[in-house]
Specification:
337 residues; 6-stranded antiparallel sheet; 7 helices; 19% strand; globular
């Protein structure tokens, strides 16, 4: 069910006044200054736990209307002002392939648009609602598809809002040194600290600086695992998410009490899927081969794979991390031991 607080309306192919412009250069991302240059009003950022997309290199920007601020009273559900735009650029093998835009056009409307880059790099053109298959060859015989609108909505139609990578945890100045696929902070990138300093958050929330959001565990490996699962799985697998029948809570909250939900809902928790036999747990301590979460990550079988969208390759680095994490857990002892 779509959240009652706002519909995610995807309006493509309409005039610029009513929906997404036809060309990326008409969205406000660029200015022409001897070539395409990112407009100085747009802030670049890099989430500490990036979404893995078959090894794509990514760049990201956000535009906030002058004089407007982000409502951060709920640190886990930021409310962005009308006029906010976010862009994410995907490159494979050194070539720009697509740029996605998310735009809060009105108080009740978010517009999603995806643009496919021309081969000469002069501009990118709005993709039709059904997406664009075979947009780029990633490895021999495997291709990146530009997603359809339905695919986009499956992740961004979210109980905490459609913006996924620009959050308190993702922008925390206390960055996880063990995060997978991390992108180094470059000068000028937005973090919680820079947003507070520029007066872009309301209320200012100095507590987000004095006690920065982080995944609080005693194990660096567990911290990295929970961060990866939050970014790559948590848009669907969360309380109130798109899969209510699956009791996984993998989106890590900014503030929480007790055991992290990513542990509470996986470790030693039985699943209803029978892929690995009866009694299978999402994560079986000490037994990677009996852990359904790892099994789904390590396969591209259309029936079993996770995530079901957004990648055609296995993230071997993530699989190795989570296999080692499960293997180091003490096995659960039973009465027969």
């Amino acid at each position: 069910m779509r959240p009652a607080w706002i519909p995610l309306l995807v309006l493509l192919g309409l005039p610029a006044r009513g929906g997404a412009p036809r060309l990326l250069t008409e969205t406000g991302l660029y200015v022409r200054n001897g070539g395409l240059q990112v407009a100085p009003a747009n802030l670049t950022f890099a989430p500490q736990y990036p979404l893995w997309s078959d090894g794509a290199a990514k760049r990201r920007w956000i535009f906030l209307p002058p004089g407007r601020t982000i409502d951060v009273r709920d640190p886990d559900a930021w409310v962005f002002p009308v006029g906010t735009r976010l862009w994410k650029e995907f490159s494979f093998n050194g070539e720009k392939v697509e740029t996605r835009m998310l735009w809060r056009a009105t108080a009740a409307t978010w517009v999603f648009a995806t643009y496919a880059w021309r081969k000469d790099g002069s501009d990118a053109v709005l993709v039709p609602p059904e997406g664009q298959p075979l947009a780029a060859e990633i490895v021999p015989g495997r291709f990146h598809d530009i997603p359809s609108l339905q695919d986009c909505a499956s992740c961004h139609d979210n109980p905490r809002g459609p913006v996924l990578g620009f959050t308190a945890l993702q922008l925390s100045d206390d960055r996880d040194p063990g995060a997978l696929h991390t992108e180094p902070l470059r000068p000028g990138m937005a973090t919680l600290g820079t947003l507070v300093a520029r007066g872009l958050l309301h209320p200012a929330r100095p507590d987000l600086l004095s006690d920065p959001p982080r995944i609080r565990t005693t194990s660096p490996r567990t911290r990295a695992v929970l961060g990866y699962l939050s970014a790559n799985c948590g848009s669907c697998h969360q309380d109130g998410g798109a899969i209510p029948g699956v009791r996984l809570e993998l989106r890590h909250p900014c503030r929480y009490l007790g055991r992290p939900p990513g542990l509470r809902s996986t470790v030693g928790q039985p699943t209803r899927a029978a892929l690995l036999g009866p009694g299978t747990c999402a994560v079986t301590p000490g037994a990677p081969g009996s852990s359904l979460l790892l099994h789904r990550m390590a396969t591209r079988d259309p029936i079993a794979r996770m995530p079901p969208l957004g990648s055609v390759l296995v993230d071997h680095e993530a699989v190795a991390l989570i296999r080692a994490w499960i293997a180091e857990m003490p096995p659960v002892r039973t009465s027969a031991d």
